[in-house]
Design a protein that fits this description.
MetI-like fold, 289 residues, 78% helix, mainly alpha, two-stranded antiparallel sheet, 15 helices
């Protein structure tokens, strides 16, 4: 009897999970599956739009070979510096959103208003708006020009790393605008930790610093991984991405090939990120066990 009840409860949970996933699956099949398959098809064809329809000519791996081996200016000379910039932006956004989420979780007057303020840029800021702010020089930190920090960075580091660092500092405020969703995720994660755990820690005489490192941070590890994945995908669509401008060109076959190469790069980057995170997590668990 108990086995049947457990089986029924397990079946109900599976059906509940399937129902929750159904809107995404249906939306993907209706709106995303065909465009993705069609773009993959076009990446192996020369596409011409004629008055009487669309003409396809099979070219095989021609566009992939051209992008990877024959004309690497876009992929290697422009994309790799952007990737360096994204790698440095990633910890900045994660750490900032984590600290803000911990602060906004405290009880103080006007907490709801401050939460809304931090999330508003996510609603109002589109890619074009961010580009316009960047073109106007908005988002800069005033002390950078006052103390000539950019020149010091250029003199201290090689041009390979100095350029991305200066770009991040010049648009630091705009970069932090991309932290709204991450702050909400960390807030939700922080509220999954039972208050009784913090009460027990206070009774044992633990300091706030010890509470953070031994309770809050370990409890937020799954949400840190979630935010790393979300932020990585979000940064790869940042308005300054040179690939996005090329994908919109009129050569549909080459643009599709470039988009798929870029997708594979993102996939590899996410896989590497997940691998490093799991190794660090296992090492941390081994150290504390």
């Amino acid at each position: 009897m108990r086995t049947n009840r457990r089986w029924k409860a397990s079946t109900i949970r599976k059906w509940e999970g399937s129902l929750l996933m159904a809107p995404w699956v249906i939306g993907f099949l209706v709106f995303m599956a065909f465009p993705l398959g069609y773009s993959l098809f076009m990446s192996f064809h020369q596409v011409k739009i004629l008055a009487d329809g669309i003409q396809y000519k099979a070219v095989g791996w021609k566009y992939y070979k051209f992008i990877l081996f024959e004309n690497g200016e876009l992929l290697y000379n422009q994309l790799i510096p952007f990737l360096r910039q994204a790698i440095m932006m990633l910890p900045v956004i994660i750490i900032f959103s984590l600290l803000v989420a911990i602060m906004l979780n405290q009880k103080f007057p006007g907490r709801t208003v401050f939460r809304s303020i931090f999330f508003l840029p996510v609603i109002f800021t589109t890619g074009q708006v961010v580009m316009e702010f960047m073109n106007q020089g908005e988002g800069e930190l005033g002390f950078l020009q006052q103390f000539n920090v950019s020149s010091l960075v250029s003199q201290s580091l090689s041009s390979t790393w100095a350029g991305p660092i200066i770009t991040i500092m010049s648009n630091f405020v705009l970069i932090l605008w991309y932290s709204g969703v991450q702050i909400l995720i960390f807030l939700a994660g922080r509220q999954t930790i039972s208050p009784s755990v913090y009460e027990a820690a206070r009774i044992d005489g633990a300091s706030p610093w010890e509470v953070f490192w031994k309770i809050t941070l370990p409890g937020l590890i799954p949400f840190i991984l979630l935010n790393l994945i979300y932020t990585t995908v979000d940064l790869f669509t940042f308005p300054t991405n040179p690939i996005l401008n090329q994908v919109n060109s009129s050569n549909y076959g080459q643009s599709s090939a470039l988009a798929w190469i870029y997708f594979l790069l993102i996939f590899v980057f996410l896989g590497l990120l997940f691998f490093i995170f799991t190794r660090v997590l296992k090492a941390s668990e081994t150290r504390h066990s």
